[in-house]
Amino acid sequence: xxxxxxxxxxxxxxxxxxxxxxxxxxxxxxxxxxxxxxxxxxxxxxxxxxxxxxxxxxxxxxxxxxxxxxxxxxxxxxxxxxxxxxxxxxxxxxxxxxxxxxxxxxxxxxxxxxxxxxxxxxxxxxxxxxxxxxxxxxxxxxxxxxxxxxxxxxxxxxxxxxxxxxxxxxxxxxxxxxxxxxxxxxxxxxxxxxxxxxxxxxxxxxxxxxxxxxxxxxxxxxxxxxxxxxxxxxxxxxxxxxxxxxxxxxxxxxxxxxxxxxxxxxxxxxxxxxxxxxxxxxxxxxxxxxxxxxxxxxxxxxxxxxxxxxxxxxxxxxxxxxxxxxxxxxxxxxxxxxxxxxxxxxxxxxxxxxxxxxxxxxxxxxxxxxxxxxxxxxxxxx
Length: 382
Prior knowledge:
The protein is α+β, with helices and mostly antiparallel strands and 382 residues long. It has helices spanning 7-39, 70-102, 108-122, 126-140, 172-200, 206-225, 249-276, 279-287, 292-322, 334-345, 348-377; strands spanning 148-151, 154-157, 160-163, 165-170, 228-232, 235-236, 241-242, 245-247. It folds into two domains: 2-42; 50-164 and 233-377, MetI-like (MetI-like fold, Orthogonal Bundle), CATH 1.10.3720.10. Strands 1-2-3-8 form a four-stranded antiparallel sheet. It has a two-stranded antiparallel sheet with strand order 4-5. A hairpin with a 4-residue loop joins strand 6 (235-236) and strand 7 (241-242).
């Protein structure tokens, strides 16, 4: 019985017991749910994903018709969620970086305005701000009948902003593939040139080369083969605007709310990261003749990144999960589409399992990506 006192055996034993206990609870819940569904003659499984959806989705990042399958409707919800989360993270990061630097400004007015901005956004629930932005858009802007005609083909009303849409008729996929390939090549060239510049201390015009690799192949392809592009201009009817690209108020309100919430959190993370850098770095930069702006960009911020990135990961996870609040203002994200699917099909357990799996998978992907970047910028010691 000496193995009972072995630390490794006890560690494995306790983990196996815990996993077995969780598996037992899961099996009990599954068998109970299956039995109750069978008593009510409700079929289980994921066959409902191939049925026609039978409902309309007002805004879609990918093409969707009422006759498409339930599975495609859920895919539309995923695409909408990813779209608004990604845009909110980008805009919020850029705005938060500026506000975080403003918090440390020597100008007392600017620093206090940044402080008020951060405190107002961090201490009021996000849901209230979503209602605020949505209500302002609905109440301030005129109805569709009196839509503001800002420019030719551009209309603004409480149903959203409508602008002309570009329709690529031929050669569009080849041009898009060329641009994507050029972007990847330009990124690789930029990384290599930056490393060489850091190693040798000499400028190698990597930025210009990367820009040329990005633009020139696509431009040559366009000139050689041509890309047929037509414009779909919106037309004003009695009750609605038809045609064009429609940016709806639900999307704008959600994007504003999420982006501003992210910016407040990012601002505090940036402020803390900058303050954590040794003050001697500022003094050394000044001794080298660098202005405060250059010292911030070239010396302080690169060192602060190692402190900023770990909490920034949690902020990005939060904005992705907070996008589920879109259901409160009617934006068709994954949760709203899934609720509609549940009402139409009655497959509640399967539908909830799908969007739980989606949130889990994408959250893990965000964590892995940010952890990789954190390791990339980490200080390497011998």
